[in-house]
Design goal:
The chain has 370 residues and is α/β, with parallel strands linked by helices. The protein has 16 helices and eight strands. Strand 6 and strand 7 form a beta hairpin. The structure holds fe (ii) ion. The site of fe (ii) ion has 4 residues, from helix 7.
Length: 370
């Protein structure tokens, strides 16, 4: 077995009512909190009420920043950081899908550091960020256990990854009841996002033994639950399975990062408004065909864990879950492929794709979606 290091410092609390039952744990982190959320899911899921109750029981005053949009911008993270400063927050509680979690992590940095955008993304901040508590309300992001904050940069016209070991949340509370109100389409998209995290980590040049074990279990769980989805919304056990799969996949990419698939998907999200998990799902089959040339043993293991059959069967399943096609012009494909070929994600993809390889993967989307 190859040498490896494994580091995952987040304390994970799992179970229905885990937020309300662990107010005492929050008291050890800080005396004042900024709660960072979007407009909807933290409220609709009941997570915000539970967080307020837990902070109240711990006698921790808090302020609410609820202006995080989907695919949050750097400006939003800066506004949340400023809100934390002006309130004198000693901790951030980030609740919602991946967007509030990522914005909350960046806000934790910006609350105590003045740095330009490029310095921020280089990890060039000297003061340790505020501690972050993460409460996911979707099953897909895995951000509750990763050292990443993915933000949209309008100037660079893509998403950018802020990465630092100091960004691991100190605690994560996972209660699958918060995902009960997630509609079927979003359940599918977020589950596919988790699936791509596990698959990319498992196939990456940065794969490692602990992450491999977590990835295969995550893929198996998502495969089982996605296959049931056309027959109706998941019950409590299914929601647990999807949230657990998302957690495991987050632990995977915390070690391995993602690969060219995510780098390619960011263009579909930024320029075409395609939801993140759906963008990844549309790219998954042609991506796997590319990786087959470099890691056939890994693709065989992925397909066996998914339990859907061969690559063609996987494509059929994804086509049923992801409606509609995306029209990309030749110029767009050329430009997106050039940019994606220069990313760290491309560098960790086996075999390393050149521009023409990436163009072929994008071409595969059009067939899958048509
Ligand atoms: Fe993702």
């Amino acid at each position: 077995m190859k040498k490896f290091n494994y580091y995952m410092p987040t304390k994970v609390f799992w179970g229905r009512e885990c937020v309300k039952q662990n107010g005492d744990a929050l008291r050890s982190i800080g005396k004042r909190a900024l709660v960072v959320t979007g407009k909807r899911s933290a409220r609709a899921s009941g997570a915000l009420d539970d967080i307020a109750a837990a902070l109240g029981s711990a006698a921790i005053p808090f302020a609410l920043f609820d202006a995080v949009e989907p695919n949050p911008s750097i400006a939003t993270a800066r506004a949340a950081g400023e809100a934390a400063r002006s309130f004198g927050a000693e901790m951030i509680v980030a609740a919602g899908g991946g967007s509030p979690l990522d914005a909350g992590k960046a806000a934790a940095v910006l609350a105590c550091n003045d740095c330009a955008d490029d310095d921020l993304f280089r990890g060039g901040f000297s003061t340790p960020p505020l501690p972050v508590v993460a409460v996911p309300t979707t099953a897909g992001t895995g951000s509750e256990v990763t050292p990443y904050s993915i933000l949209t940069d309008p100037a660079k016209k893509t998403k950018r990854n802020l990465k630092s070991e100091r960004l691991f949340p100190v605690m994560a509370f996972l209660n699958s009841r918060y995902t009960d109100s997630v509609p079927p389409e979003v359940t599918a998209h977020t589950a596919i996002d988790a699936l791509t995290h596990a698959v990319e980590g498992y196939c990456s040049s940065r794969s490692m033994p602990v992450a491999d074990a977590l990835a295969l279990r995550s893929i198996e769980l998502v495969g089982t639950e996605l296959a049931k989805l056309p027959r109706g919304a998941p019950g409590a056990e299914g929601r647990d399975n999807l949230l657990f799969a998302s957690l495991l996949a987050g632990c995977v990419i915390a070690q391995t990062g993602t690969t060219v698939l995510h780098a390619m998907g960011y263009h579909l999200t930024f320029f075409h408004g395609v939801e993140h998990g759906r963008a990844n799902g549309l790219l998954l089959a042609p991506y796997l065909r590319h990786v087959m040339a470099g890691r056939p043993d890994r693709i065989t293991a992925v397909l066996a864990s998914l339990g859907w059959g061969d690559l063609s069967a996987l494509e059929t399943m994804l086509r049923a879950l992801l409606k509609g096609a995306i029209a990309l012009s030749p110029g767009e494909v050329e430009e997106y492929s050039r940019v994606a070929s220069e990313t760290a994600g491309a560098a960790s993809t086996i075999p390393r794709p050149g521009v023409d390889d990436i163009k072929s993967i994008y071409a595969g989307i059009l067939r899958a979606g048509s």
